[in-house]
Write a structure and sequence with these properties.
6-stranded mixed β-sheet, single chain, 15 strands, Alpha-Beta Plaits, 8 helices, 283 residues, D-Maltodextrin-Binding Protein, domain 2, 27% helix, binds zinc ion, binds adenosine-5'-triphosphate, alpha/beta
Length: 283
């Protein structure tokens, strides 16, 4: 049985549960207890505060956990990142009052900075030879300058609207963060195998999200161009159409290249282009 720790409520909860669901893992968790077992996979889920997850994974209370890289690096436990999950994206940044005429990092010298990330902040400032007074607080960091507790802050930012409403501006980025799957270094052989199975599923779900299935009709004279454009998983599937000189092509296209590929396909006289989401993809 593999034990996974996830956030019990908060920004990572929904996406963590959704990921397990997309991996075909059904939880027996009607009324949000501390833990829930999966019906159809050897997994037990522990619902915890995100700050506690690195310690629990390090101690082996949980074998693996889903947590923000920001928390993982701040807690500095000796555990492995095994998969970057692509959700919970944010950055850890330093922000100063809007009115401050900030031109370089040297301007932070001598200031008092409030944060819940003292370790990451200290490391960053050391690398940049800046001396500040770090004031560790446990929450509502963004109000610290407004109430005279600090001159600046170091906190998580996604859209920047919280900073804006508190009269602050982002001046330095310390870390780009996302949710990761982290694992204890000494998993049993049995749990290592379960983790591999889980990773295969996660990878299938994530790869599928990054790709689309594409069907189109094209004149045979353009097929070579289209095959070069749509290499697919091995090579595209081609079926002749009833109309002489035409074929139907089926392939897979990466989300990042999608619009560029579509434009080129039009140039290559492709017609009736249909794009379908993929649920799982195992390459
Ligand atoms: P807990 O009660 O579990 O301690 P929390 O209040 O510390 O929760 P949340 O605000 O739910 O934590 O954030 C959890 C994680 O979500 C963060 O550690 C970070 O990795 C990620 N995250 C993404 N965007 C943001 C954001 N704009 N602000 C804060 N965290 C964010
Ligand atoms: Zn927390």
């Amino acid at each position: 049985m593999l034990k996974i720790a996830i956030q019990k409520s908060g920004r990572l909860y929904e996406d963590s549960i959704k990921l397990l669901k997309e991996c075909g893992i059904e939880l027996n968790n009607g009324n949000k207890q501390l833990k829930a077992a999966a019906y159809n996979f050897p997994l037990e889920v522990y619902f915890l505060r995100d700050d506690d997850i690195p310690q629990y994974v390090y101690d082996g209370v949980a074998d693996i956990g889903i947590v923000g890289e920001n928390v993982l690096l701040e807690k500095d436990k000796n555990i492995d990142i095994v998969y970057k999950l692509g959700f919970g994206r944010c950055r850890l940044s330093i922000a100063v009052p809007k009115s401050m005429g900030y031109t370089s990092i040297a301007e932070l010298d001598g200031l008092k900075i409030a944060t819940t990330y003292p370790l990451l902040l200290e490391k960053f400032l050391k690398e940049n030879n800046v001396n500040v007074e770090i004031h560790e607080i446990s929450g509502s960091v963004e109000i610290a300058p407004g109430i005279g507790l600090a001159d600046a802050i170091c906190d998580l930012v996604s859209s920047g609207s919280t900073l804006f409403t508190n009269g602050l501006k982002e001046v330095e980025t310390i870390l780009m963060s996302q949710a990761v799957l982290a694992a204890n270094k000494d998993l049993s052989i049995e749990n290592r195998e379960i983790l591999q199975k889980l990773l295969l599923r996660i990878n299938a779900v994530k790869t599928a999200k990054n790709n689309k299935y594409i069907l189109l009709n094209a004149p045979n004279s353009q097929l070579k161009n289209i095959f070069d454009l749509l290499p697919g998983m091995k090579s595209p599937t081609v079926v002749p159409l009833a109309e002489e000189g035409w074929s139907s092509v089926q392939s897979v296209v990466n989300e990042n290249d999608f619009w560029e590929v579509i434009e080129k396909l039009k140039q290559y006289e492709a017609e009736g282009i249909i794009v379908i989401p993929i649920e799982k993809m195992i390459v």
